[in-house]
Design goal:
There is one protein chain. The chain has 267 residues and is α+β, with helices and mostly antiparallel strands. It has helices spanning 2-9, 18-30, 34-52, 55-75, 93-111, 119-129, 135-153, 159-180, 195-206, 236-243; strands spanning 185-192, 211-217, 222-231, 250-256. It has a four-stranded antiparallel β-sheet with strand order 2-3-1-4, covered by helices on one side. A hairpin with a 4-residue loop joins strand 2 (211-217) and strand 3. Helix 1 runs antiparallel to helix 5 (93-111), helix 2 packs parallel to helix 7 and helix 5 (93-111) runs parallel beside helix 8. The longest helix has 22 residues, at 159-180. The chain starts with a helix and ends in an 11-residue tail after the last strand.
Length: 267
């Protein structure tokens, strides 16, 4: 992420999301390296996390902050003009690349029970004190503040505001995908009068388990069976083809964000 800031964020004069967005603005205005600012902001927050939240979470957050700060400080003394992306043919490519990198790093760090510091630690602390509080609005307010402030800092232009919003969107989308990982799936729930025959085909062709529940149609008062089967996303067409052999069945499908336990990702 430190390399991404040096190559894509700083050369394009915009502020990314979160606490680092404010730090980037301070660096732009007062020429104080974000490496130092990140340490100044995050060390007290990490101590708070160590004392009030979780020691493992705090250690991994500290590791991230130290590596990020060291990287930005070292890169700040190097001439990267030959490889840095400074708008060129498209202004949005730099923020787009930075948002993708940030989202990937953010998702991986969270999966390892760490954080990128700043907003993450504040959000975790607030959630512990007030579980009922929606952190979405807290994070949205912080990011919106960075975007609005960008208008005044970067020469009263709307472009830095739009670039900040683009960065926020891509970062959140990519991190969400990383957090879900490759374990997302689809859940089919099928109402049928042919449970044995249909289950046999699903087990044989899709190689995923099927759960059978007895059911009754309240309109017709006729006995039915509910089959529940969670499959990989690439198997949806195959599942639909199996259902076509049973025209009197009714099925609906829903997303499963993550599967745990005995579920194999069949190639």
């Amino acid at each position: 992420m430190g390399l991404s800031y040096a190559l894509f964020v700083f050369p394009n004069s915009f502020a990314p999301a979160g606490i680092n967005g404010f730090a980037t603005i301070i660096q732009y205005l007062f020429h104080i390296s974000i490496g130092y600012l990140s340490l100044i902001i995050n060390i007290p927050l990490i101590l708070l996390a160590w004392k009030k939240l979780n020691a493992d979470f705090a250690k991994k957050s500290l590791l991230f902050v130290l590596v990020f700060s060291a990287t930005t400080l070292i890169l700040g003394h190097l001439d990267l003009s030959g490889i840095a992306y400074d708008s060129g043919s498209s202004t949005i490519l730099g923020p787009a690349a930075a948002g993708v990198v940030s989202g990937a790093v953010y998702g991986l760090v969270l999966r390892l029970n760490g954080s990128t510091g700043g907003t993450d630690i504040v959000a975790a602390w607030v959630h512990k004190l007030h579980p009922e509080v929606s952190l979405v609005w807290v994070i949205f307010t912080l990011n919106a503040s960075v975007a609005i402030l960008s208008f005044f800092v970067y020469g009263y232009q709307f472009e830095p505001v739009i670039l900040c919003l683009l960065y926020c969107y891509l970062s959140s989308r990519i991190s969400d995908g990383i957090l879900k990982g490759g374990k997302s799936a689809l859940k089919f729930e099928v109402i049928t009068r042919h449970p044995e025959e249909l289950s046999s085909k699903l087990l044989q062709e899709l190689r995923h388990g099927v759960t059978l529940i007895q059911a009754e149609g309240m309109f017709s008062k006729t006995p039915n069976y509910l089959l529940i089967c969670v499959v990989n996303r690439h198997q949806v067409v195959q599942f639909q083809n199996i259902l076509r052999a049973f025209p009197d069945t009714f099925a609906y499908v829903s997303n499963v964000n993550e599967t745990l336990g005995n579920f194999k990702l069949i190639a």
